[in-house]
Structure to design on (153 residues):
């Protein structure tokens, strides 16, 4: 048992990893918010409000259909579709990051903070600090690509 002067092991968390996790979650949240905004911009009946509770891929499928209906050059539409596909691919890693860490980052028996996120049902799928930072950078690029491609329609 630790003394009263020693911090509890849960208080000694890897701050770099915790901050990177927050940055990663925020970066993908910006993509999700952009999808909502785009649904609102591109529809006449406030579809963004109607699909608010649908999963991300359902919203991107609707966005894809709306883009397909637009009077625009096929290259511009393809650019949007490519950006949407990149966002959907990122959503898979985002799910590992968001839904798995707290159950397995903190090893209560060993009293240590894990240095990677593992998918609970498939521990071969891991995300470490470097990957979190890369995810954040990639998400920022995908958000920009999606925003610019939609504005170009």
């Amino acid at each position: 048992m630790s003394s009263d002067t020693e911090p509890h092991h849960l208080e000694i968390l890897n701050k770099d990893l915790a901050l990177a996790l927050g940055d990663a979650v925020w970066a993908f949240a910006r993509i999700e918010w952009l999808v909502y905004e785009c649904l609102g911009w591109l529809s006449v009946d406030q579809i963004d409000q109607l699909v608010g509770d649908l999963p991300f891929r359902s919203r991107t499928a609707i966005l894809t259909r709306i883009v397909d209906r637009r009077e625009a050059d096929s290259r511009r539409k393809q650019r949007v579709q490519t950006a949407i596909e990149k966002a959907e691919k990122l959503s898979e890693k985002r799910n590992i990051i968001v839904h798995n860490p707290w159950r397995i980052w903190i090893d209560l028996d060993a009293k240590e903070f894990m240095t990677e996120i593992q998918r609970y049902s498939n521990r071969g799928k891991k995300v470490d600090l470097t990957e979190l930072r890369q995810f954040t950078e990639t998400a920022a690029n995908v958000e920009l690509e999606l925003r610019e491609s939609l504005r170009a329609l």
In short: The beta strands are 106-107, 112-113, 116-119, 122-128. Residues 9-151 form one domain.
